[in-house]
Structure formats: structure tokens, C-alpha cells
Amino acid sequence: MDAAEQYLAGKPVRFVGAHPMAGSHKTGAASADVNLFENAYYIFTPSDLTSPDTLDEMKALLSGLHARFIEIDAKEHDRVTSQISHFPHILASGLMEQTAVYAREHEMTRRFAAGGFRDMTRIAESEPGMWTSILLSNREAIIERIEDFKERLDGIGQAISKGEEEQIWNFFNQAREQRQAMEIHKRGGVDSSYDLYVDVPDEEDVILRILELLRGTSLVNIHINEENREDVHGILQISFKNAQDLERAERLISENTDYTVVIK
């Protein structure tokens, strides 16, 4: 923002920083999704070069995305995204790097990695060039988040070392309550999807039968959890783009099969 204001000063240009809070770790035209920005936040960071009518024109131009527009100060934007977007990518990539090294001596590490590990490291597949640029453009805020996290890791590490059961329990319980209270359970966050888990038997054509029931329903992804089922609700995981499709799928599968269906 500072560079834009400096470079464009005195020129007949109206400038406003903006980007959607939605995306995917996948790249290329084959991964395009016409509904990618639907109900996601689209952030505007007005500058000194933003005239009163600029935002209205931008919202009209981008209305076909069906996004949720929001305005925020540029510096506050950098602080917020350093915590909930930039720093998580560092964690995911760091965990993958640590695991890859650990797996050299403990070969079963890769095989035992289950749902929790998969969910935490999905974004480690993101495009490295883009994230290198992002981190270098928001250094101060990100470094502050890294230092803060180091202290938190040291704190729980000391509690484990000393066997402080109550402190460890509070650590997990507070995190659980805080996550349940966040809006990540509502549509409008990053990469939002709606997941349904079906506990299916190991029988021929059972998955084809379920997909036939869901004919006409838009699916985001299908995943078969077959090696390690720790912390997953069922062997077949189906992701949908919206709550309506999720509810329809739950109803159809429950009415036409005796499989256990769980919504997460």
C-alpha cells in the first residue's frame, strides 16, 4: 500500500487494495472453480488514492462473485492475516518438513499419518513462490507471531515436563472452546466446505451406490480413509460446497441405506 501510494501520487489513478479471503492449495486451470469466492470475504483496504465512489464501483464490478465485501485498514489487515493465514502456512510447512526428516528413521510415520495430520498439513501443498512473496511483504507481523508461538510451545512443553495435568487439560479445553466460538464453522472463511462421513462396509460397488444416490448434487471432493481411521468419523468422506447439498446428501443416504452418516 505504501509503495502504491508513493508511486501513484499525483497521477490520475484511483487505487484501493483488495483481495478475496478464499483460495486453494491447488494450481492451474484444471483447478478452477466458478463458485470459489461465493460467500467468502472480499477485503478492501482503502488508501489515500481511494475516492468516495471507488468502493461502490468495485463492489458493482465484482458483484458476480457473490462474495461478502468488507473494509479494513491496511496495517490491521496485515496483522490479522499474519495470524490466521500467513503463520498457519509456516506451521503446516514446518510440520511437514519435521515429519519428513523424522520418517527417515521412523518409516511408519508416513503410513500412520491420519485425518488430523492431513487436515493440519493440507496447505503445505500451496505454491511456494507466492508464499515466499507474502511472507517477505509482511515480515514484522509474521515474526511477531512466530515469537509469540515459541513462548506458547515452551509453556505447554514445560507443563508436560513437570506433569502438570490441570494445565495441560486447560490448554486443550480452552483451545476447543475458542475454536467452537470462531466463525470458521460458518460459511465465509477460507476454503469453506461441508463434510459428511459415511461408515461403509468393504463391499463391491458400495461407493458407486452412494454416488448414484447423490446424482445431481455438486461434490467438492471425495476421500476414502482406508489406512488409518484414527480421528475420522467414517471411511468415506464427501465434501460439499454448501449446506443445502450437505443436508440433501445426508437425507438421501440415511433414507436409502443403513450406513452410519455423520456431519462434521
From TrEMBL:
Transmembrane feature ranges: none
Pfam family, one: PDH_C
Single Gene Ontology MF annotation: NAD+ binding
EC number: 1.3.1.12
Pathway field: Amino-acid biosynthesis
Keywords: Oxidoreductase
Top EC group: oxidoreductase
UniProt record, GO biological process: tyrosine biosynthetic process
Prephenate/arogenate dehydrogenase domain: residues covered: 1-190
Family the entry assigns: Belongs to the prephenate/arogenate dehydrogenase family.
Protein name from the UniProt record: Prephenate dehydrogenase
Source species of the chain: Streptococcus oralis
